[in-house]
Amino acid sequence: MIVVTAALPATKYTGTDPFSQGWEWLSDPLNWQGPLGIPTRLVEHLGYSALTLLVSLAIAIPLGLYVGHTGRGRGSVIALAGMLRALPTLGVMTLFALIATSSLSLMPAIWALVLLAVPPILTATYAAIAAVDRGLVDAARSMGMTERQILFGVEVPNGLTVMLGGFRSAVLQVISTVAVVAFISLGGLGRYIIDGLAVQDYGQVLGGAVVIAALAIALDGLLALVQRAVLSPGLKEAKTVPDQPVAAQEPTISQATAGLTGEKS
Amino acid sequence: MQWFLANLEQVLNLTGYHLIQAVVPLVLSVLIAIPLAQLARLNKVAGGIILSLGSLLYTIPSLALFVILPSILGTKILDFSNIIVALTIYAVALLVRSTLDALNSVDDTIRQAATAMGYKPLQRFLGVDLPLSIPVLFAGLRVISVSNISLVTVGSLLGIPSLGFFFTDGLQRNFPTEIVVGIVGTLVLALLMDVVLVLVQKLLTPWLRTAKPMPALASDLHTAAVEA
């Protein structure tokens, strides 16, 4: 089952402690080129993550909007998300990989990752819509807006920051967990950790880990900026008005925790 | 099921290792996060540093942190302590934030009443602020507990024993049953831990048992936000 993939030419270390070896591995130009080099692995890593997120968004956003807007199926969505959260992704991934007919195909791993990414997006979407001030929604309805207009013109803009918070934590989890797919003989940056551990090349292990960590931190920072940028202009103004009652305070409670929530991976 | 019964001893052993790696960080994080949260509340600058450092550390993927820590701590790559330290870091990062929210949500008039009754600052913190924060604190703990149980399995990629061993071993032996046992075991463990946490919370907040808990909206919203 475990396919031994071709490895990079081993870096010749001069240092003995893991830190200097890690640094030497990272600064070795041979590790930055070719089909096994860091740039290629990075593209693979991002590719798997993007595919996972696309599938997850296609499932979680419509479902979350529906439940949030209608309030139907609220209990089952929360229960489902809670159950999916407890699933160990490594286990699901190995199981899917074994059951799948072709041992090297990508989709089993992607589906396992989708199970990981759906709960944060789904619960954030649902919670974002459900937390929109009912007074606003009623006002929109009494102005004659259709349900579709209410959903996309009032509820989504008001809940967008919280929704993006869920997306952000899903991105983080997926980027982290894609590192694990190397274990089932796929690519991505996790290869360096898995391959390095197999041959006790701790410079490679550490170097790979640093690249993955840097990727996660950079992407998370980028998404934090996006999250700030897309806040509806109307809501930005509302915040500067003093003595703004509950309506203005609610989003801030959620925003405070939105960046740092959900399951770690 | 047959395989499960035949290997019951191994399942129980690995469950024990798994529990240690998941529960110790939970306890440590409570002890570390509460003082940090109070510090963050009293000092804006320190608070900013603590919260940003927390979210930065929280962003580091677990597999990466598991293999980076041995070089920093000087531990062997197979040590339990790597997993325990890593999970404690994540738990503290998350818990400081929810504890801070919890402490901030305590009504100021209650604090003033306590001071007027003669509570000293530390006494007031331990006797008034902290107990009133328990529901929010436990909401955070329950999220952490579920994710810890699942994260511990990743350590099996380094060869650290936990129920995750059944995933790596099952894959190598091409034996799905073993993986299923591992998954079910992990789920059961997560569920049991959750039940225990709910019971402990009930024990710690006897005043919530009779009356309706707090303003429902605020706590609901917070739970939703924490869970999201």
From TrEMBL, chain A:
<keyword id="KW-0813">Transport</keyword>
<dbReference type="GO" id="GO:0031460">
    <property type="term" value="P:glycine betaine transport"/>
</dbReference>
<feature type="domain" description="ABC transmembrane type-1">
    <location>
        <begin position="42"/>
        <end position="223"/>
    </location>
</feature>
<feature type="region of interest" description="Disordered">
    <location>
        <begin position="241"/>
        <end position="265"/>
    </location>
</feature>
<feature type="transmembrane region" description="Helical">
    <location>
        <begin position="170"/>
        <end position="194"/>
    </location>
</feature>
<keyword id="KW-0812">Transmembrane</keyword>
<feature type="transmembrane region" description="Helical">
    <location>
        <begin position="46"/>
        <end position="65"/>
    </location>
</feature>
<protein>
    <submittedName>
        <fullName>ABC transporter permease</fullName>
    </submittedName>
</protein>
<feature type="transmembrane region" description="Helical">
    <location>
        <begin position="106"/>
        <end position="132"/>
    </location>
</feature>
<comment type="similarity">
    <text>Belongs to the binding-protein-dependent transport system permease family.</text>
</comment>
<dbReference type="InterPro" id="IPR035906">
    <property type="entry name" value="MetI-like_sf"/>
</dbReference>
<dbReference type="InterPro" id="IPR000515">
    <property type="entry name" value="MetI-like"/>
</dbReference>
<feature type="transmembrane region" description="Helical">
    <location>
        <begin position="77"/>
        <end position="100"/>
    </location>
</feature>
<dbReference type="Pfam" id="PF00528">
    <property type="entry name" value="BPD_transp_1"/>
</dbReference>
<dbReference type="InterPro" id="IPR051204">
    <property type="entry name" value="ABC_transp_perm/SBD"/>
</dbReference>
<keyword id="KW-0472">Membrane</keyword>
<keyword id="KW-1133">Transmembrane helix</keyword>
<feature type="transmembrane region" description="Helical">
    <location>
        <begin position="206"/>
        <end position="226"/>
    </location>
</feature>
<dbReference type="GO" id="GO:0055085">
    <property type="term" value="P:transmembrane transport"/>
</dbReference>
<dbReference type="GO" id="GO:0005886">
    <property type="term" value="C:plasma membrane"/>
</dbReference>
Automatic annotation (TrEMBL), chain B:
<dbReference type="InterPro" id="IPR035906">
    <property type="entry name" value="MetI-like_sf"/>
</dbReference>
<feature type="transmembrane region" description="Helical">
    <location>
        <begin position="20"/>
        <end position="37"/>
    </location>
</feature>
<keyword id="KW-0813">Transport</keyword>
<dbReference type="InterPro" id="IPR051204">
    <property type="entry name" value="ABC_transp_perm/SBD"/>
</dbReference>
<protein>
    <submittedName>
        <fullName>ABC transporter permease</fullName>
    </submittedName>
</protein>
<keyword id="KW-0472">Membrane</keyword>
<feature type="transmembrane region" description="Helical">
    <location>
        <begin position="80"/>
        <end position="100"/>
    </location>
</feature>
<dbReference type="Pfam" id="PF00528">
    <property type="entry name" value="BPD_transp_1"/>
</dbReference>
<comment type="similarity">
    <text>Belongs to the binding-protein-dependent transport system permease family.</text>
</comment>
<feature type="transmembrane region" description="Helical">
    <location>
        <begin position="149"/>
        <end position="167"/>
    </location>
</feature>
<feature type="transmembrane region" description="Helical">
    <location>
        <begin position="49"/>
        <end position="74"/>
    </location>
</feature>
<keyword id="KW-1133">Transmembrane helix</keyword>
<keyword id="KW-0812">Transmembrane</keyword>
<dbReference type="GO" id="GO:0005886">
    <property type="term" value="C:plasma membrane"/>
</dbReference>
<feature type="transmembrane region" description="Helical">
    <location>
        <begin position="179"/>
        <end position="200"/>
    </location>
</feature>
<dbReference type="GO" id="GO:0031460">
    <property type="term" value="P:glycine betaine transport"/>
</dbReference>
<dbReference type="GO" id="GO:0055085">
    <property type="term" value="P:transmembrane transport"/>
</dbReference>
<dbReference type="InterPro" id="IPR000515">
    <property type="entry name" value="MetI-like"/>
</dbReference>
<feature type="domain" description="ABC transmembrane type-1">
    <location>
        <begin position="15"/>
        <end position="205"/>
    </location>
</feature>
